[in-house]
Amino acid sequence: MSSKAYDCLKRIGDVIIENKDFLTDLDREIGDADHGVNMARGFEAVIGKVPEDQEDIGAAFKTCGMTLLSTVGGASGPLYGTAYMDSGKVLAGKTSIEKEDVSAVFDAAIAGIQKRGKAERGEKTMLDSIMPARDAYNEAIAAGEDMIPALEKACEAAREGIEFTKTIHATKGRASYLGDRSIGHQDPGATSITLTLETITNFLKEVK
Amino acid sequence: MKKLINQVDNVVDEMLEGMVAAYPQYVKRLEGLEVLVRAGGSQGKVALVSGGGSGHEPAHGGFVGKGMLDGAVAGAVFTSPTPDQVFEAIKAANGGKGVLLVIKNYTGDVMNFEMAADMAADEGIEVAQVVVADDVAVENSTWTTGRRGIAGTIFVHKLAGACAEAGGDLAEVKRIAEKVIANVRSMGMAVDACTVPAAGKPSFDLADDEIEIGIGIHGEPGVNREKIGTVNDISDKLLDKILAEGIYNSGDEVAVLVNGMGGTPLMELMIANKHVHDVLAGKGIKIAKTIVGNYMTSLDMEGFSITLLKVDDELKKLLNAPADTPAFVQV
């Protein structure tokens, strides 16, 4: 039987692959029309590379990150690659996820993305979804909520983050070349990170 | 989508195989990798490694050879190559005198090449890098990623490559590359968009009488959409923006590159070039060299870009030095 770590990554991969054209179409509006194609190629490789019986979530995430780094290319490769590798570090040796782990993964992933992309919140990037998601998660946990409801609030904040990216112009990445013409379009990276978060949340809901 | 391809997933692999089959005297492919290096191996001089997404042919593999590049890394179409591929190119090209990475200013390219540079430095290889950002269509401000690197990159390959071939050390080759970058500016336009094979549809839609001014080389939309005019009018728009940089003044000498985007007849490029010469002559700007053709393309995009490089005696000597590569030969 395959491990939960593998199943979770496989599920993320399936969702990314299902949304390949959607993500690519979003990228066509304000970028270079390859986000879905590149991410799908990366996750096809991830599904083949992560051992099905890998129980160690940290090790599975690390393999996922390294595979994305060497197969995706573009900006998404280093960004998602680093996010998964750095998340893998804080999950090393773990075979299940507790609420503190989720906070640590948010922190590690965000720090990794910021280190590579040198971006801040409000620049129309994936950070505009994942950073509010982290805040919503931590707030819910601080208010005494359990992991799954807190994650659902995080997903809601991530979706609001996507909506927010429609209202601002990009100052990072290829969309920044469009100036005000990027307004009105949602950021593909914010979208793919939200899909990822929703998938992880649904997965944890089922296995918990 | 109508394309002369076999399978979408194989376009880069088959293109590289075709390059090697066509130019075995110039290039060889690193086994299992999307990297072309000089057929004769590393050259015992400072090595130049460049690359980027595919779809810009002949860039970058077409410029691997004497007097230009030592290694070229090909990513997926319009997608930066990954760090492991760039790292292998650095190792293979390294002739013991260090490696200069010539990077075009895109978020992904810079990230992937920097990660590769870190990996190489960990192995004790001396690596330096320059980032080309010649596209004046994009304002250089804190509000953008900075200007894009487009066709002006060819001049960086040419002049820094000549410096390396002449025995310049890594610091010297980097200085020349930076001097070229400081003096080169470009701007492009499209009559029609390109179609990325994996996407299957044009990257943007233009009406029959519309053009896109200020496009990049990846099918990304430009900064302005307008009604088409004559090629002289369009060239004026591109030149005005380049000349407004204040770099090119009466009495200066420049190299000109009129670059096709892949789907533009040479006839039209020549007509544009005639006008560029007329305008520059009218401004008292001398032309040291003119290059017209498809050098930094964007698949099947129909359009062109204009690049000016201001040259002094030092740069002129490097500009006129011999080069022998698949896509650029100068005796």
> What is the average per-residue confidence, as pLDDT of chain A, rounded to a whole number?
95
Helicity level of chain B, as a percent range? 25-40%
**Tally of strands of chain B:** 14
Radius of gyration of chain A, in angstroms, nearest whole number = 16 Å
Total of domains of chain B: 2
What structural category do the secondary elements of chain B indicate? alpha/beta
Q: Distance between the terminal alpha carbons of chain A, to the nearest Å?
A: 17 Å
Globally, the shape of chain B reads: globular
Largest inter-chain interface? A-B, 32 and 37 residues
Which CATH class of the largest domain in chain B is shown? Alpha Beta
The CATH architecture of the largest domain in chain B is: 3-Layer(aba) Sandwich
Backbone CA Rg of chain B: 19 Å
Alpha carbon gap, first and last residue of chain B: 41 Å
The overall number of domains of chain A is 1
The CATH architecture of chain A can be given as Alpha Horseshoe
SS element count, helices of chain B: 8
- Beta-strand percent range of chain A: under 5%
How would you name the CATH homologous superfamily of chain A? DhaL domain
* Tertiary shape of chain A: globular
As a percent range, the share of helical residues of chain A equals over 70%
Explained architecture:
- The complex is a heterodimer of chains A (208) and B (331).
- With 208 residues, chain A is mainly α.
- Chain A has one domain: DhaL domain (Serine Threonine Protein Phosphatase 5, Tetratricopeptide repeat).
- Chain A is 71% helix and 0% strand.
- Chain A is built from nine helices and no strands.
- In chain A, helix 7 runs parallel beside helix 9.
- Chain A is globular.
- Chain A starts with a helix and ends with a helix.
- Chain B has 331 residues and is α/β, with parallel strands linked by helices.
- Chain B folds into two domains: 176 residues, Dihydroxyacetone kinase, domain 1 (Rossmann fold, 3-Layer(aba) Sandwich); 136 residues, Dihydroxyacetone kinase, domain 2 (Hypothetical Protein Tm841, Chain: A,domain 3, 2-Layer Sandwich).
- Helices cover 31% and strands 24% of the residues of chain B.
- Chain B is built from eight helices and 14 strands.
- In chain B, the strands form three sheets. In chain B, strands 1-2-4-3-5-6 form a six-stranded mixed beta sheet, sandwiched between helices.
- In chain B, helix 7 links the parallel strand 10 and strand 11.
- At the A-B interface, helix 3, helix 4 and helix 5 of A face strand 4, helix 2 and helix 3 of B.
